[in-house]
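User: Okay, second chain of the day. Same drill as before: sequence in, structure tokens out.
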Amino acid sequence: MTNCRKWAESVLRLQKYLAECGVASRRASEKLIEEGRVSVNGAAAAIGAKVDPQHDDVRVDGKPVGQNKKVYIVLNKPEGTVTTAKDTHGRKTVLHWIQGVPTRVFPVGRLDMDVEGVLLLTNDGELAHRLLHPAYAVGKVYLAWVQGRVHADTARKLAKGIMLEDGMTAPAKAVILDAGPHTSRLRLTLREGRKREVKRMCAAVGHPVRSLHRVAFGGVRAHGLRPGEWRYLSDQEVYRLRKIAKLQP
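Assistant: Same drill. Structure tokens below.
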């Protein structure tokens, strides 16, 4: 009975195991399985398969998968860089800036090509999954330079939520830092991760974004890092992120 219990505890869902090994996020790992790129003990794997990391041979594209030491990085993403591991059009990706890391990492979420600022990268798939899941409401702080003078009532609308084509946005924080006749500067704190959400919200209230910079993700900032520079997260930063995500520190 004890051996059975130990075996059950060691078995993981395949997509979770791939995420924990730093192959990709859990969702992206599911896509790899669906595409037939993952094998277990020489046979093509299926969604929902379970593996015992101590005994099963798991491979992606024919290459063996193993658990690596967890790595956590913050990059000050420069404008003009694509937030993917690979780009079919030959454009520069965020991994171009990450040199000397002993294991494979992937970006946590995305920033548009023309957006600068804080981008987290890791091989901790479970943490990445939770940081992006709306249930954990992880704060992301942006500075947005927008067209026109933004008034207080508009900031209140942004804070309460804006109806977009994919539904009402969650409540946010919106602070007017500067309001000029032609351009205003806002600080927006969002707790969900819809595609191009800041740009769509500002456009919906009549103030299209001219420039956008993410200054924090889950409390992690890029102080002292020039565009294209990165650093490892401190133990305290990792502890805080895992606490936010309700994971064991």
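The mean pLDDT is 90.

User: Thanks, on to the next one.
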